Amino acid sequence: MRYLITGGAGFIGSHLTEHLLPAGHRVTVLDDLSTGRLKNLEAVKHHPNLQILVDSILNRPVLERLVGEADAVFHLAAAVGVRTVIEQPLQSLRTNVEGTCNLLEACAAARRKIVLASTSEVYGKNENVPFAEENDIVLGATTIRRWAYACSKALDEFFALAYAAEAGLPVIIVRLFNTIGPRQTGRYGMVVPRFVRQALEGRPITIYGDGRQSRCFTCVSDVIEALGRLVESPAAVGGVFNIGSREEVTIEDLARRIRTLCKSRSPLVHLDPEQDYKEGFEDMRRRVPDLTRLEATIGYRPRVSLETALKQIIADFKAGRED
Ligand code: UDP
C-alpha cells in the first residue's frame, strides 16, 4: 500500500512511518515542521520507500496531488498540545478545521480511505467515565481557549461523518487518549516528558492543582498497532473508535513513579496552572476510555504497561535526546 501520513514527522506520525516501512508499504510524509521534526525520521530517512515533503495541509494543490498518489491517508497533522492551542489559538483553529476540510475534500474527490486522528479531549469535562464513543460531549465556555481544541476536533469529526454520508468517503475516526512514548516533547505542555526531564535534571516536578486528576496513558506502540489494524479492517469504515489504555493513574502518583524510576531527588511541587498558562486553561478530572468497540472490531488489547512505557521514555531522554 501507498500511505500518505500528514504530520508524519511528528511524535506519533514518525512512529507510524517506522512501523509501515518495514512491512513493505510506501510512505509519503507531509509535514510543515511547525511542531514535527525531521530528526524524528532519522532512523528511516534513507529508506527507498519513504518520501518526505515539507509543506502544509493548508496548501490544497499539494494535498490533492499527494492524496491522488496514495491508496490511503493517515491524518495526524494538527495543533499539538494544550500549550500550543492556548498560545496560538488562531493558527490552531485554522490547521485543525481548514486543513482537515481540505484533506477530507481531496480524499472524497479521489475516493481514498482516511484515518482521521481525533482526541479524547472531545469528551471535554464529562465525568461519566469510562467514555464510550456515543457519550455526550461536555465543553466549557468559548472564552476558555482550551475548549477551542476540543471543539475544532469535534467539528473535524462532524465534517468527516458528513463527507461519509453525502460523498461516500471511507473514513475511520480515532480518538487518542494521552499517547506517550520516546520522542514526545514536553515543549507543548505534555506531562510525561515534562516530568521526566524535571526528574532527570533534579528540578522540581510541577504538578498542576491537587494532583488527584487522572489519565490513562497509552504507549505509542499500542496506538500504532491499533491504527495499522483499523486501516485494514473493512468493519472499521464509518466508525469512531477510542484508542487508549485502562491503566488509570493520578498525576501525583505519576510524578512519584517517574521520580523513583529516574532515581531522582526532585521535590514535588503543586502549582496553579495559571502561573504557566496566563489564560485559557481548565483541567479535566478523569479521562478513561471504554475500549469495547475497538476490541470487538480489531481484537485490540493494550500491551505495554505504564511502567514499561515510562522506562522506554526515560532511556530515550538519557540517550541524550534534545527536547
Ligand atoms: N500536568 C501537570 N504538570 C505539567 C503538565 C501537565 O500536572 O507540567 C497535568 C495537567 O494538568 C493534566 C495532566 O497533567 O491534568 C495531563 O496533561 P497533558 O497536557 O499531558 O494532557 P491532557 O491535559 O490533554 O490530558
Brief descriptors of the model:
323 residues; seven-stranded parallel beta sheet; binds uridine-5'-diphosphate; Rossmann fold; alpha/beta
| Topology as a string of helices (H) and strands (E) | EHEEHEHHEHEEHEEEHEEHEHH
In the CATH hierarchy, what is the superfamily of one domain?
NAD(P)-binding Rossmann-like Domain
Secondary structure: helix percent: 25-40%
* Largest sheet composition: 7 strands, parallel
Summarize the structure.
Helix content is 38%, strand content 17%. The chain has 323 residues and is an alpha/beta fold.
Secondary structure layout plus pairing:
Elements: E1 2-6, H1 11-20, E2 26-31, E3 50-54, H2 60-69, E4 72-75, H3 81-87, H4 89-110, E5 113-119, H5 146-167, E6 171-176, E7 179-180, H6 191-200, E8 205-208, E9 214-216, E10 218-219, H7 220-231, E11 240-243, E12 248-250, H8 251-261, E13 268-271, H9 292-298, H10 306-318
Parallel strand pairs: 1-2, 1-4, 2-3, 4-5, 5-6, 6-11, 7-10, 8-13
Antiparallel strand pairs: 9-12
Helix pairs in contact: 1-7, 2-4, 3-4, 4-5, 6-8, 6-10
Model description:
The structure is a single chain. With 323 residues, this protein is of the alpha/beta class. The chain has a domain at 2-180 and 219-246 and 287-303: 3-Layer(aba) Sandwich (Rossmann fold), CATH 3.40.50. It is 38% helix and 17% strand. The chain has ten helices and 13 strands. The strands form four sheets. Strands 3-2-1-4-5-6-11 form a seven-stranded parallel sheet, with helices on both faces. Helix 1 (11-20) crosses helix 7 and helix 3 (81-87) packs across helix 4. The longest helix is centred in the first third of the chain and has 22 residues, at 89-110. It is globular and about 55 Å long. The protein starts with a strand and ends in a 5-residue tail after the last helix. 45% of the residues are buried. The mean pLDDT is 95. The structure holds uridine-5'-diphosphate (UDP). This is UDP-glucuronate decarboxylase. Its cofactor is NAD(+). Pfam families: GDP_Man_Dehyd.
